[in-house]
Inverse folding.
């Protein structure tokens, strides 16, 4: 076959392929071509990817499990699909180190899918709120360098509890600072997160607001903030263990805007509390709302993570797989 014959045969193939696609579309066989979001498309039958937060190993208390590289190695050895980093666990953020983490994960075939960050916009101090905006933008840029597509964000807490133990003793409820109200706080949080959106869109890093105490303690609080910001770059992170009463009704309320899930397990008893979560029921809620994203393990029990994390993976595979 000479060059002219080759070109003629390949162009004919293209025409035939194009005609076949057009015919399929006319017959209604090519579906959802105009869908604007994966949530609008017919769900495919595939298992969700189960990943692990490095927090599950470290828990702010296991010094020998703090090293991020070691956490990546453990995640690979245990059979996870990817890793989420806890920002406060990272002791080095130089570019050389970050690129080394990316390389390490790639060689294991692991996704780097989440960066769990901390901030607070729940303060009357405008300079402090700006510092937290700057911090959040810095975390967005850090995630971009790592190739991570989403970061966990918080509203922050009022800080009127003596410490986190007291906050947990009070079921995550605390009064506002004297002379201030939750209503003021919502304005601060909405403004603070809104000022991070340009950086998020520029970097392609989705902000996921977690039900993580403060004004995000209830579905109504989360939705009020996300709806007010009204941006595709701010959605919801569902933590399965942070609604302490009537969790399933509350998880249902936020499921439609959930873009990332952190799933709690409590082997050995919880560090602050223990919930007997029905993961199959939670999985059914997510399926109902066509959720296709990651399920990230946050182990928060007292058992040794080296035995409890693999047990957790097995349980989550059974429920969400």
């Amino acid at each position: 076959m000479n060059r002219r014959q080759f070109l003629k045969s390949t162009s004919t193939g293209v025409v035939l392929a194009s005609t076949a696609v057009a015919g399929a579309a006319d017959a209604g066989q090519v579906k959802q071509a105009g869908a604007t979001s994966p949530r609008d498309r017919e769900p495919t039958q595939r298992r969700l990817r189960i990943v692990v937060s490095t927090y599950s190993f470290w828990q702010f208390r296991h010094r020998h499990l703090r090293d991020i590289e070691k956490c990546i190695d453990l995640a690979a050895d245990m059979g996870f699909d990817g890793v989420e980093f806890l920002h406060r666990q990272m002791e080095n953020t130089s570019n050389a180190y970050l690129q080394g983490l990316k390389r390490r994960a790639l060689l294991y075939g692991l996704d780097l899918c989440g960066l769990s960050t901390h901030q607070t916009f729940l303060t009357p101090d405008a300079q402090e709120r700006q510092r937290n905006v700057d911090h959040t933008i810095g975390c967005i840029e850090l995630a971009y360098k790592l190739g991570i597509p989403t970061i966990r964000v918080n509203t922050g807490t009022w800080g009127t509890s003596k410490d986190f133990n007291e906050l947990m003793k009070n079921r995550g409820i605390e009064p506002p600072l004297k002379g201030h109200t939750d209503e003021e706080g919502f304005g601060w949080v909405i403004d603070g997160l809104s000022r991070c959106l340009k950086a998020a869109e520029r970097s392609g890093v989705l902000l996921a607001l977690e039900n993580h105490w403060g004004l995000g303690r209830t579905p109504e609080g989360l939705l009020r903030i996300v709806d007010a910001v009204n941006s595709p770059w701010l959605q919801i992170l569902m933590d399965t263990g942070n609604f302490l009463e009537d969790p399933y009704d509350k998880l249902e309320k936020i499921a439609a805007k959930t873009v990332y899930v952190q799933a709690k397990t409590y082997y050995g008893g919880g560090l602050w509390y223990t919930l007997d979560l029905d993961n199959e029921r939670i999985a059914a809620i997510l399926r109902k709302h066509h959720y296709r994203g990651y399920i990230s393990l946050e182990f928060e029990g007292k058992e040794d993570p080296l035995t409890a994390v693999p047990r957790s993976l097995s349980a989550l595979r059974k429920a969400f797989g």
Summary: Residues 206 and 233 are 5 Å apart (CA to CA). The two ends are 50 Å apart (CA to CA). The mean pLDDT is 90. Strands lie at 50-53, 82-86, 111-116, 150-153, 206-210, 234-239, 258-265, 295-299.
